[in-house]
Amino acid sequence: MATQDKLYEGKAKILYATDEPDILLTVFKDDATAFNAQKRGTIAGKGEINCRMSAHLFRRLEAAGVPTHFIDCPQPHTMRVQAVRIVPIEVVVRNRAAGSLCKQTGLPLGLALEPPLVEFYYKNDALGDPLLTLDRVCVMQLATAEQVAELRQMALTINQILTAFFDQCGITLVDFKLEFGRVGDRLILADEISPDTCRLWDQAESDPDRRVMDKDRFRQDLGQVEAAYQRVLDRVLSQNT
Ligand code: UDP
Predict the structure, then answer these.
(1) How far apart are CA 19 and CA 3, in angstroms?
(2) Which class is domain 3-82?
């Protein structure tokens, strides 16, 4: 299977066409960006860690009945995926208050959100990925109200599965971002699920800095970024049940 044209290079991944029109290759990079690419750096080994972790979680989600774009990993930092039409909406699920939610609302860091909060952001770097309302989604013709309800339901199902899984790993799933695509009318989970796209807190640590196992270590210059990503992967891979 020879790789062909580079279709797109994003901040953390490169997408290639393959000989098969319905299959793409995603290569995960070590490059890291934050604050809409105003902060840039490299996290050694991140590409491989995020690829392996996403693959593991996609397999688990598939086994639980959630359709994903994942096919397999021909190399440690390379994933074969089904080609989809990406829905230009980033779906964020929050189990605890953190990040932009705290900044914009004043809610205290770590506040438990029950039921979980589901938010929609416009996937558009030039506009800084703004928060959407249902009415905005409809006016912008990004999706119908029915499709938004479907995105919300799938995101909540994924949250239930992932929260229970990370709990087994001794990790609190604070929040995470999902991207979806369509094949025909079918909605399927795409992109990645990794410490780049999730907030993950070590349940064995109470210190607000020491417990952080995700990209906030890079965003906030907390150090030990590679080690934290590796610890998440080790715990994820050691869970067989
Ligand atoms: N997130 C992401 N990509 C983005 C924006 C957010 O993966 O472009 C993830 C982020 O890592 C966190 C969750 O979505 O797990 C919620 O992020 P938030 O809105 O709090 O934004 P941030 O604090 O990252 O600016």
Answers:
(1) 7
(2) alpha beta
